[in-house]
Write a structure and sequence with these properties.
Layout (H helix, E strand, L loop, with lengths): L5 H22 L6 H14 L3 E5 L2 H11 L7 E5 L5 H8 L3 E5 L1 E2 L4 E2 L4 H4 L4 E4 L11 H11 L2 E5 L7 E2 L2 E2 L6 E5 L13 E5 L2 H11 L3 E3 L2 E2 L10 H12 L1 H19 L13 E2 L5 E4 L3 H10 L26 H9 E4 L7 H17 L4
Parallel strand pairs: 2-3, 2-6, 6-7, 7-10
Antiparallel strand pairs: 1-11, 4-5, 8-9, 8-14, 10-11, 12-13, 15-16
This protein binds pyridoxal-5'-phosphate.
């Protein structure tokens, strides 16, 4: 059993992928070729914003986004204490300081109640994360941001395709960043990322930053970086977009089946916040005795993952010894992601749940 089965998807798309890749090899515009422009148009349409700016990866997208918002040395950016490293890493790479707030332990999303207390005169932006496939409480974040004149950048790396009250992730704030890492719901065959905004001026700044701060050929008005989406990756993503909605429906079926099968067990199922339609990037439940259960699953050949074992402020690279957030720390002890992809079959899911049930019993949890 695979944790994420990319081979099943590839078998389904093979002739179309091969044709798309051949077309790029034939025209030879490997960097910023026509497929990149076509993909940006398609993605912007889908998210419902005026601009999509593609770039090298999701981490760069966050960093470019922060730079575009004018975040730099001396600034603070509020982030949830529970996320992938890139959320806080991008803040540090932009020269600013991450300030951590706690999460709602049921949804694992930033708890907006903690925002006001984290704001200082140095706060410039809030970086909420739409984790595991569902959107953060963007209305509550926006309300605080408006009150304190702060920028908002949605980390939508795991939520491309998700909606909140019917509105797409990526269109819920002035700026959003996503990732096309292969294991994300919309994944390339390598690295990729993109930014979304409705703001014309900001879009121009972001594009400039991602292309060496170039205003005209070999004339550079600022220092940016080199961050571009390869034409080959854009071609792959255009093909994968064609089946994205079908795969989303399949992911939803898989998640609902897990919910049903796991209901009798002593585990906390992933909870969706009201108004959210998830893309189910992960199926992450919470349980006592996580490590022992995980070992028993591994022994039975069932791969799992821990997203994430350690709060951001306890990572060696980011250590903030004065920070302590109880929900982040509790979730890190209890979270466990089960195999999740659109092609997971009911029999496989039944086996995962059977082994997990036996593990809980053996460890003294009923
Ligand atoms: C994957 C991810 C990123 C970074 O994306 P890359 O393309 O791997 O750089 C950022 N934030 C979150 C929450 C992610 O899951």
């Amino acid at each position: 059993m695979e944790f994420i089965d990319l081979a099943a998807q590839q078998a389904r798309l093979k002739p179309r992928l091969e044709a798309a890749i051949q077309a790029v090899l034939a025209h030879g515009r490997y960097v910023l070729g026509p497929e990149v422009e076509a993909l940006e148009r398609r993605l912007a349409e889908r998210v419902g914003v005026n601009h999509c700016i593609s770039c090298g990866n999701g981490t760069a997208a966050l960093q470019i986004g922060l730079m575009g918002l004018g975040v730099g040395p001396g600034d603070e950016v509020i982030v949830p204490g529970f996320s992938f490293i890139a959320t806080a890493e991008s803040v540090v790479l932009a020269g600013a300081r991450p300030v951590y707030v706690d999460i709602d332990p049921r949804t694992c999303l930033l708890d907006p109640d903690g925002l006001e207390a984290a704001i200082t005169p140095r706060t410039r932006a809030i970086l909420p994360v739409s984790l595991f496939g569902q959107c953060a409480d963007m209305e509550a974040v926006e309300a605080v941001a408006v009150r304190h004149s702060l920028a908002v950048l949605e980390d939508a790396a795991q939520s491309f395709g998700a909606t909140r009250h019917g509105r797409p992730s990526g269109a819920l704030s002035r700026l959003a960043a996503t990732s096309f890492f292969p294991s994300k719901p919309l994944g390339a065959y390598g690295d990729g990322g993109a930014l979304f905004t409705d703001d014309d001026e900001l879009a121009e700044a972001l594009r400039c930053i991602a292309r060496h701060g170039e205003a005209a050929p070999y004339h550079h008005v600022r220092l940016g970086m080199n961050s571009r989406l390869d034409t080959l990756q854009a071609a792959v993503l255009l093909v994968k977009l064609e089946c994205f909605d079908d795969e989303l429906a399949r992911r939803r079926t898989v998640a609902e089946r897990y919910d049903r099968l796991l209901a009798p067990l002593d585990v906390a199922l992933p909870m969706l916040a009201p108004g959210n339609a998830s893309v189910h990037a992960q199926y992450s439940l919470q349980l006592a005795g996580r490590d022992a259960a995980r070992a028993r699953l591994a022994a039975a050949g069932i791969p799992t993952a821990v997203h994430y074992p350690c709060p951001l402020y306890r990572q060696l690279a980011l250590m903030d010894p004065d920070c302590s957030l109880p929900a982040c720390e509790a979730v890190c002890q209890r979270i466990l992601s089960l195999p999740m992809h659109p092609y997971l079959e009911e029999a496989q899911q039944r086996r995962v749940v059977e082994v997990l049930a036996a593990a809980l019993k053996a460890e003294g949890h009923v």
